[in-house]
Write a structure and sequence with these properties.
Length: 426
Amino acid sequence: MLYRLILWLVLPFVLLRLWLRGRRDPTYRPRWRERFGFYSGSPTQGAVWFHTVSAGETIAAAPTIRAMTADQGPVLVTTMTPTGSERVASLLGDAVAHCYAPYDFTYAVRRFLTHVKPRALILMETEIWPNLILEAKARGIPVMLVNARLSEQSARGYRRFRWLSRRVLECFDLIACQTAEHAQRFIELGVKAERVQTVGNVKYDLDLPVDVQERAAELVQPQRRYWIAASTHPGEEELVLQAHLAALKSHPRLTLLLAPRHPNRADELASLLDRLTQSASVTWCRYGDWAAQTEPTAGDCSIVLIDEMGVLMPLFLLSEVAFVGGSLVPRGGHNPIEPASLGTPVITGPHDFNFSQVYADLKAASACQQVSEASLTSVLAELLNDSAAREALAAAAGEVVALNRGARQHTHKLIAQVLNGQSSGS
């Protein structure tokens, strides 16, 4: 009741935040009623409900979801962000139904569950919403958490609110964890050990597009070299651009592929690029012009602003170095497995707690390099000048990815056991 009271108190701020996000990013405006449990059209009732939150979780879950559509009947995928919605459409198409998940207000969750009547609820990684889980369990719906992770910091928070967290965590029929360390933390918080499994990280089981090499070949320009800064956040782009301008002094044919985490920030970054490049005699262009070569000078741009979703894989492949953002600022870093799988050397900042185990695996195998604000420029220069070092990083990263594959099949098997009424520990 206390949790639900707090939610009612913050409802005006939730509405204000949604309105402000809609002003900054118009893609948040359509279908906003779905976030409060109001849905148009005929529901996909009796489906396995898979909640993937945003684009990264959708990409990771897509192979498992495809397998489920083949042997478990209809699947409903919900997200919380427009970019996640776009990923569902591009990766899964008509194979699944899609809508936004309701915010964790009791009335919204109940309206959604009545509308959809899901066969099961499967959450990804850290998406533990009390009302959603408690209401689903109260209706006899199996609840699972897959690719689960729980940092020590998050575990301390759950212990602090044990009066709520224990009751919620006891609802899970299955928690499939990335590591034994994460599994132990869930058990210490009160989850029955037989419901907790260690399966590895499904993000290692990446399905590379069959045409990725062809797409990369179409983009590359003769005599040019490329590096990419992917999933960057405010405060990082300036540092990346400074490193790039310094590298251009030794490598004048070098192109930076700058891909912000949120493409809707493109106009903001365009202003930054205009300001920084005016005095440096450096040209920049947007991805669409560069890829289509609509202007004679597009192929010689020193900086390409990536303002589209779903185009990074071929860009990773043609890049000699990949900086993975969210790591020079305390956002926790983003997924390095895509560039690692494609043989692109990875560099990251110190803030990698969102993917701590993946980065620990890569660092232990000397398969990536960690940089600071001060060392980004020098490390980038060293890698651009040393092809042997790049090859060693790429080979080591490929081995790490290969050794950690298999979580997807294990996870799919455990989900099927729960759906078929068996114990997840059997």
